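Researcher: Batch entry, complex prediction.
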Amino acid sequence: MLYAVWTVKHKPKSLSEIVGNRESIQTFVDWVKSWDQGIPKKRAAFLYGSPGIGKTATVEALANEFRMEFVEKNASDYRTEDAINHFAGLASQYRPLFGGKRIILLDELDGLTGTTDKGGVKAITEVVKTAACPIVLISNSAYDQRFTTLRNYCLLLEFKKPPVGEVMKHLTRICSHEGIQIDESALRFIAQRSEGDVRSAVNDFQMLAQGKKQLKYEDVSWLGYRDRQDSIFNVLRMILYGKTCLSAKRAVDMADVDIDMLFEWIYENVPAHLTDPHDLTRAMNALSIADVYRGRIRSSQDWGLTRYVIDFMTAGVAMARQNTKASGWIPFRFPGRIHSLSISRADRAMQLRIGQKIKRKSHISAFRASKQVLPYLKIIFKSNIEMATGIAKWLDLDREMIEYLGGSEEKAEAIIKQMG
Amino acid sequence: MWAEKYRPKTLGDIVDQKEIVERLKSFVRSRNVPHCIFAGPPGTGKTTAALCLTRDLFSDAYREHIMELNASDERGIDVVRETVKTFARAKSIGEIPFKVMILDEADNMTSDAQQALRRTMERYTETCRFVLCANYSGKIIEPIQSRCAPFRFSHLPREEHDHFLKQIAEKEQVKLTEEGAEAIFEVCGGDMRRAINTLQASASLSKPVDAKVVFSITGKASPVDVQKMIKTAMGGDFIEARKQLRDMIQKYGVAGSDIIRQMHTEIFRTDIPEPLKIKLAEAVGEIDYRLVEGSDEEVQLSALLAKFVEAGCDAKK
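Model: Structure tokens for the complex:
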């Protein structure tokens, strides 16, 4: 589970693990419990508040703690008649024949957009009116005009951003699970930066801390750099969610990074934000055409072609969105190609040193040798001392290199002994 | 290492790339060499051909007339200004009035450095001829391309590949089975450097080299493979597939041209409706061409991966 996302891995399992919003949570619990005494006046609870503060987590933790049958749906699934009938069927039973009590969550109500989904809200309202089991609705805002009627049938519960101290509590819990030691100043820095968005705090924290045992203030302070670059997020939003070609193209003027860096940001973030396969293909194709023009600029040195690079990497990507709905809050990620932490610096240095030795003997760059030849040498050095001895001599490797390739001191000892 | 030990020494030793070798031999006969670009995938004999050419030209004294520079280690403009220029302008003594500069992996040079190189090539043509080796000729700036004789290297065909490996196996007293040779060809696809390295690593296990041994070796040398990546993409997980692609390129140094060739083979093996296969083949061809043009490997190949995600999704309908 090395690559598990921490927001999922460390999701609160019980209500006590949720930070902040004690009052709202208590009201919510009381309401759910009241179902045991018969159907309450309000048959749905409407949880609203800014992204990443634990609305969904609260419902999940509650269902887990009370051992309820938990049905989770995305609101935007309910736009066909079949789906709505299915939903109504589910909602008509509190104690199904098999399994415990049932609770239904309809997440991301704000995902229902525009006129096409008008029917969706209406259908959901109808089901809520007659529901026989608790229904939970979640949205960033409850006061959207579309929800006016629906609101009347719901228990409204506002979720607020938890204070810094509470966010720190949550991060501390993750630290102890992951066995990471962290300075309080570093913890406070991450918590403060998140401005109450616990999910983004955890995402930031994972990016900084994964694979480390210890985290100091210096390790996290570079995030401040990202703060100054905050505009890059706005730029990305304008491109990935742009409605017109012009608005997406205009984003480039706002970016304070150069075109190549902006390209990397877009390239990194497209797949998470355009999840429909056809949209994704269109967006990636637009990026690949932009890249073709970068190549043409390089070989022809005609910088005028830059305008086409911009067209495709901005407007091309924006126009790719045809099916994917904006849904919830998806974090923007720092370009991974640049931030590649695949191997440690010490490893890389050693590989390059051996690469230099190979280069001297075999007409291949040290860089390429370290990638393409070195893996084979590792196998040879681990499995055949005689062959390894010959190669070590020929390449003039030192003890450290032999140990690195052989993987152990004993192997290195045996090889060096043979070398005489 | 065997890859070096069995590298052909003269043009006559080179078994494949017949048209290219013939043209190079004619250069030797006329004692004149133009500037050249050797373009083609890794392990197809570009550097070898360049080395053989100079050796045939200058015979024993070749070391004094040749300089080998690796652009991916020394790719900056300073290197071109200093090292290359110094070597290029010095007059050479002997029957042939010029020296040969081999610029390996020239497509990794920055375009500034290429501009500088272009001027150097022009000014010192009398005293120095350049052989540029590159995976993609498209990454060489046009002014340089137009000054060079182009040579396009391609992967060794199966027979030549097997023949060469068997010769090595015989001399090293290693038992290489028919299936073993086939397995090496399947994974390395005619990249001779990788093929010979794979053979040597397999032989180091002191067992007959059969398909099982070969696959276990290549599995260790590069744990992510194209087949797995395509499966991931077809299953709909683009982000993971792109990560695997990134690992292949960055961590294990697999060439984009190799990846795309294997992707092409895989299309016709996957279980999707027939019309989708030809649609994918069209996409692969287009991306392949974009790579040759000199575009970014990861960006292009991941655009192609997206098409596989799409196909995987369409196939389910």
